[in-house]
Amino acid sequence: MDHRYDNVNLRIPGPTPLPPDVREALSAQMINHRGPRFTELQQEITAGLQTLLRTKHDLLLLSCSGTGGMEAAVVNFLSPGEKVLGVSIGYFGERFRNIARAYGAEVIPLDFEWGTAAEPAAIQAALKAHPDIKAVLVTHNETSTGVTNPLKAIAQTVKGAGKLLLVDAISSAGSIELDTDGWGIDVLVTGSQKGWMVPPGLAFVAVSPEGWAAHAQAKMPRFYFDLSKAKASAEKGQTPWTPAVSIYYGLQTALKTLLAEGIDGIVARHQKIADYTRAGVKAMGLQLLADERVASNTVTAVRQPDGVEIGALLKRLRENHGVVLAGAQGPLAGKAFRIGHLGFVKAADIDQTLAALKAELPQQIAA
Ligand SMILES: *Cc1c(COP(=O)(O)O)cnc(C)c1O
After folding, report:
1. Is 360 in the pocket of ligand 1 (CB under 6 A)?
2. Residue 312 confidence (pLDDT) above 70
3. Which of 16, 71, 100, 239 has the smallest number of CB atoms closer than 10 Å to its CB?
C-alpha cells in the first residue's frame, strides 16, 4: 500500500479519509463490468444504499462527481421553460439552480442569508405566489456554511403543495438523519466522497415513482446522465457506460461497516463528533458561523478570528501540523474556515485539529 499521505489529518468536507480495509479493497483486480461478478457487486451495493437512505425505490449509481448527480436530478425531471423554485442558503444551493438555468429552466430564486437555514413558511409563500412552479430544488446540508436545512418540514410543505422535490443530500446522506421515502423526497442525490468513506467518483440518485412520472414528461436534453438508460441497465445488473469499478469495490467494503453500525448509530456518531467539535471551537474563544440549532453535523464553519488571515492560518496548520482544513467560498471567502467531521473520523482527529489551531492562533483567542 502507498503510505505517502498517511500523516495528513484531512479535515475538509470531502474527499474524506479512507478506512484501511477500504484502501485495501480499492486495489483489487479489474472484473468484467458486463459479467456476473459485477452484477452481484452492484446489487449488493444498491441494496445497502437503499437501507441506509431509507428508500425502497430505485437507487441508481452514476460514475461522476456529486455535481454530475445534481445535473442528472435536473435534466431528467424538468423541461426547458418550466418554473422551479431554487432555494439557496449558500454556494451549493446556487450551484443547483445554476444547473437548472443552464438547461433552460425558469428559476425563481429564494435566498436565505448564508449561515442561516431555509424557512418552510417562506417556501410555502413562494409556492403560493407562483402556482405554476413545477419543482423545488433544495440543499439538505449546505457544506459551504455548515448549515442543515429542516428538510422534513420543507418536504411536508413542498409535497403538501403537490410539487416535485429534488434534493442535494451530497454532504448529509449517510451521516445526518434522513428518511428519503418517509419524507416524500422525489429525487435525492449524494456523492461517494462525503460520509460514505470512499473516494470521489460515484453519485447515488434515488428516484420516487412520482419522480419517474415526471421523468416520462421531461424534455431537457440528456445523454450520459439519462436515467432511463441507467434504470434499464440496473435491471440487468449493469450500467449503461463503463463504471468506476474500483470505487464499487471500496463502497462494498465501506457499506459492510456502515450497515453493521446501522443508520441510527451512524447519525448518533455524527451528532456526537459535531457537538464535540463545536464545543472545542467555542472553548477556544472562536465563533461558529451557524446558529447551533441549525449547525451541521458533518461540517463546522468558523468565523474569521480578528486579525487572522485565513489563508495564512490554513497554511500554517498544514505545514506545521499536517492538519488540512477548508477555506470558505463565495461571499464568505477569507471570512471563515471549515472543519469537516464526516465519515471516517475519530475524536482524536478533532483533538489534533483543535490543538493545532490553538498553537497557531494569536494568544488572546487561544487562551
Ligand atoms: C461536495 C458537494 C457538492 C459537489 O460535489 P462534487 O463531488 O464536488 O461535484 C454538491 N453539493 C454539496 C452539498 C456538497 O457538499
Report:
1. no
2. yes
3. 239
- Residues 6+ positions from 333 with CB-CB distance below 8 Å: 327
Q: Evaluate whether 77 touches 217 at the Cβ level (below 8 Å).
A: no
Q: Which of 12, 88, 143, 300 has most ligand 1 atoms within 8 Å of its beta carbon, as the pocket-test mutant?
A: 143
Grid look-up 446489487 returns: 43
Q: How far apart are CA 84 and CA 32, in angstroms?
A: 41
Confidence at residue 367, expressed as pLDDT on a 0 to 100 scale: 61
- Write phi, then psi, for 272 (nearest 5 degrees): -65, -45
Tell me what the mean pLDDT of segment 113-117 comes to: 97
Q: State how far the Cα of 40 lies from the Cα of 180, in Å rounded to an integer.
A: 24
148 lines ligand 1 (CB under 6 A): no
Pocket test residue of 67, 147, 296, 342 for ligand 1, highest count of atoms within 8 A of CB: 67
Q: pLDDT digit string (tens) for 159-176? A: 999 999 999 999 999 999
Residue 336 near residue 146, CB atoms below 8 Å: no
pTM: 0.98
67 lines ligand 1 (CB under 6 A): yes
Q: What percent of the chain has pLDDT over 70?
A: 99
Q: Above 70 in pLDDT, residue 255?
A: yes
Q: Which residue has the cell 437507487?
A: 59
Place of cell 446540508: 141
**76-109 pLDDT, tens per residue?**
999 999 999 999 999 999 999 999 999 999 999 9
**For 6-40, how does the pLDDT look when each residue is reduced to its tens digit (9 = 90+)?**
999 999 999 999 999 999 999 999 999 999 999 99
Question: Is ligand 1 within 6 A of the CB of residue 280?
Answer: no
The answer for residues whose C-beta is within 8 angstroms of residue 187's C-beta and 6 or more apart is: 73, 76, 77, 164, 165, 166, 167, 205, 206, 207, 208, 211
- Contact in structure between 88 and 110 (CB atoms under 8 Å): yes
